[in-house]
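the two lines:
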Amino acid sequence: MVSDVLKIGEKELNNRLFLGTGKFSANKYIPEVVRASGVQVVTVALRRVDPEYEEENIAAFVPRDCILMPNTSGARNAQEAVRIARLARAAGCGNWIKIEVIADNRYLLPDNEETVKATEILAGEDFVVLPYMSPDLAAAKKLVAAGAAAVMPLGAPIGSNRGLKTKELVRILINEISLPVIVDAGIGRPSEAAEAMEMGAAAVLVNTAIATAGEPVAMARAFSLAVEAGRLAYLAEPGEAVEYARASSPLTGFLRD
Amino acid sequence: MKVILNGKEEQVEAGTTVAGLVKLKGFNPDTVIVEFNNELVNQENWDVTVLKSGDRMEVLRFVGGG
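prediction for all of em together
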């Protein structure tokens, strides 16, 4: 097959599974998960340190050849997201940033309007901006105009493992938006990742479903295979679905009277 | 004098530096990032950054996240 790279910013990616690093029972799983799945983009978060509670430095567990994509989780508006993004870059995290602006604590749904504002500011400062968003076409168009490098609609609420509940809205974004559409959040099983990829998603970002699986390393491998299978299926152009049967075997020459 | 450390008031002696407060509070200097009055301070400048009353200091680190 001809090479099928995903270009985001200046980077060319061969692997279309992105990995979130939250909720692993031990950080030692992370390098194994990266190896087993071949992921190239890994998200991290920035938090205040509690000196009473010694925590490991997550960056030490991410293989050096991965692209680190800090998120702006904790930000409730555009200004807070911009502050986190600038800090992360100044701290040596590179210029990729996942914008995450959330003002809703129950469903953790993103605030598209503030996300557009943050995207515009950070794209203007040469960040590679990947905004997490509710799948809304008007907002996605504004993100394109604001200089986003991709858009990342949710499949279902963060950490819910409910799958591609927003499928029809994500499909509209894939059809109408010129940027890569990366399904971020809610994907609970490899089959759902494959479903997103078959539909034409450019990539899938998975955290909870891998991190909280009984065997995270094996699950990461399963997701990687599913993403690859879904991508191949999309490129292979699936046949149309129809209402009634269409025989696969010839309808002539039957061995009967 | 009082400064704000990670959102909470903290009583420190005059002349305390960023490096001094990091040490005093037991933060691991190799893994933390310091934001001082909304600007990142590189570790080589911690020794020469002296706190004044009312300064805001954030001690941060990267953690797992999605």
